[in-house]
Amino acid sequence: MVSRLALAGLAIIFATGAWLVAAPFVLRYQPAGAPWTGAARLDVTVGAALAAAGLAGFLAALAGQVRELYAQAGRGPEPE
Amino acid sequence: MGSVGRYVSGLCVAIVGLCAAGWLALVPMAFGYRGNSQHKAVLTDRATGAGLALVSLVTLACWVIAWRRTLRADAIVSGTSRRQARREARARRRRERGGGAAAGVPDPGRVLSDLRALLTPLLAEPTAPDGQAPDGQPPDGQAARVPAPRNVPEDEPALPVVPHARSGGLAAMESMLASAELLMAGAGEEEAW
Questions:
Q1: Interchain pair B13, A13: CB under 8 A
Q2: Residue B130 has pLDDT above 50, yes or no
C-alpha cells in the first residue's frame, strides 16, 4: 500500500512537471508567436526538469519493484 | 542498482520536487512578475508549488516508511520502534503486576482440594483380614468419597476417590479443613477491606 502510494507520488510529480510545461500555452500567458516571456521560460524549464526527474524516479522505482517480485518468486529475470 | 537504489531514487525525486515547489513559490517575488498576463503566471506558479510541496512531502514520507519496513524485515534495524517498544514494556509490566496479584491470592477451593487429596491417604488404615474395617466400615476396595468443599462449584471435576479412612481421623481432618476454609475466607475478606 505504502509502496504503491510512493509510486503514485512519483507519477504525480511527473504529471506536475508536464503541467508546468503546458501551463503557459494552456492559460495563454505566453501568446503564440510572441517572444517568450520570463515567466513562460521559467515554467517550461522547471517543468521539464521536474518531469524528467519524476519519470526517471518512477521508472527506477518500478524496476526495483519488479526485481523484488522476481526475487520473491525465486528466480531472476530472464537473460536477454 | 539494487533494492536500495529504488528507495534512494524515490527519495531523491521527492526532495527534488520539494525544492521545485519552493522555487515556484519564490519565483514571482524574485523576478517581480507584473502585468495582467503575469498575474496568471503568478497564480499558476503558487498553486502548482503548493500542490507540488504537498505531494512531495507525502511521497517522501511514503518512501521513508517503505524503506524502514524493508530494513526491519531484513533485520538491519531493530524490529520495533521506540514507541512500540515502550508500549510493549508497559503492557508486560501490567501483565506481570496482574499475574503477581493473582499468584498472591490462591484459590481457596483448589487449595482445600489439594490439601484433602494429600491428607486423606495418610489417614487410611489397613483393613482387617476378613475384609471388614475394624470399626464396621465397608470392606476395602469400596471407596469412600470425601465431600467437596463448600465453595467449589458443582461443575468442578470430581475429587479423587480415596480408600476408606478411619471415621475418627476423617472427622478430625474434616474439622481441620473446615477451619482452614474459614481462615482462608477470613483472610480474603480482610484483603478485600
A1: yes
A2: yes
Cell 465453595, located at residue: B151
Look up the pTM and report it: 0.56
Q: Please answer whether residues B59 and A9 qualify as being in contact, where contact means their C-beta atoms are separated by less than 8 angstroms.
A: yes
Q: Which of residues 1-40 of A touch B (CB under 8 A)?
A: 2-3, 5-6, 9-10, 12-13, 16, 19-20, 23-24, 27-29, 31, 37-40
For residue B121 the three cell numbers come to 491417604
Domain boundaries, chain A: 2-73
pLDDT at B141: 47
ipTM score of complex: 0.84
Contact A56 B9 (CB under 8 A): yes
**What confidence tens digit (pLDDT) does each residue in B9-52 have?**
999 999 999 999 999 999 888 877 776 667 888 888 899 999 99
C-alpha torsion angle, residues B162, B165, B169, B170 (rounded to 10): 50
The dihedral built from the CA positions of residue A14, A18, A20 and A26, taken in this order, carries a sign that is negative
Question: Using CA atoms, how far apart are residues B150 and B113, in angstroms rounded to an integer?
Answer: 11
User: Domain extents for chain B?
Assistant: 3-73, 106-192
